Each structure stands twice: as C-alpha cells, then as structure tokens.
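dumping this here before i forget
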Amino acid sequence: MAGDEPEPEPAPLQPVTPKPPEPSESRPVPATPASHSGRASSGVAWGGAAVSLALFTVGTVFGVLSQQRSDALSRSTASVGLPPIYDEAQRIAYTDLQTQGQTYSNISVACYFAGGATALASAILFWNAARLTARDKKIALIPTVAPRSGSLTLVGSF
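structure:
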C-alpha cells in the first residue's frame, strides 16, 4: 500500500484517580429531618408564645390607660350642683383626653389582635412539632368492656 508505515501503538491507559475535595468544599452532614424540624418548630413556637404574652401585656396596659382617660373625662364633666364651666381650656383638656383614650383603645385592640394571631401561629407550630417528633413515640389508651367489668390499658412505645 501507499504508506507501509506501521501504525503507532496506542499509549497504555492510566487509571484516573478522583481528586479529593478541597477543604472549602466540605459537605454538611444532613440531620434527620423529623427531629431537626420538630426542634426548630418547637423553638419558634416558644418564641411566638413569648411574643404573644408580651403583646397581651402591652394590650392590657393600653386598655388600662384608655380606661383612665375615660374616667378622667367623666370626672371633668360631672356636675356638683352647678353646671361645669366650659371654656377654651376645658375644651382642650376634654379633646386631649378623648383623643388619647381613643388612641390607647385602638392600640390595645391592635395588640390583642396581633397577640391572638401570634398565639394561633404558635399553637400550630407546637402541633406541627409534636406531629413530627411523635412518629417514634406512640401511645394509646385502649378501653375494654366486659359484661361484669371494664378496664383501660395504656400501651405505647417511647
């Protein structure tokens, strides 16, 4: 043939060794989803319960302040035999007490509403945490009824 040159032999195959990952490429070990999610959910639920308690406390304080303004308004308009003198100073004091009372009442209602919403969200998170962690822990109360007796049996695994 035209080019009687022998074909060169292919180079021997060398094994390819995988390169070890660099320290910056470390992969986190995944935690078990049920226990990790349950603990995180429970922690957030406790935080929500604390926020709910704080909101209810602030709402109560503003409710008391609103009632104090209402009482002061009632005292300023009460007559002791003679009609109260209604001048410019009295009008300003009356308007200030009324405005403050309404503002404090609105803040109180808003705090109660936000506290209730936070408490509901916390209750849902507590329920979810209990549901996630209860997969391994199951308990049952089994009633047994016979013609002349009855019993309750508690069974479960912890």
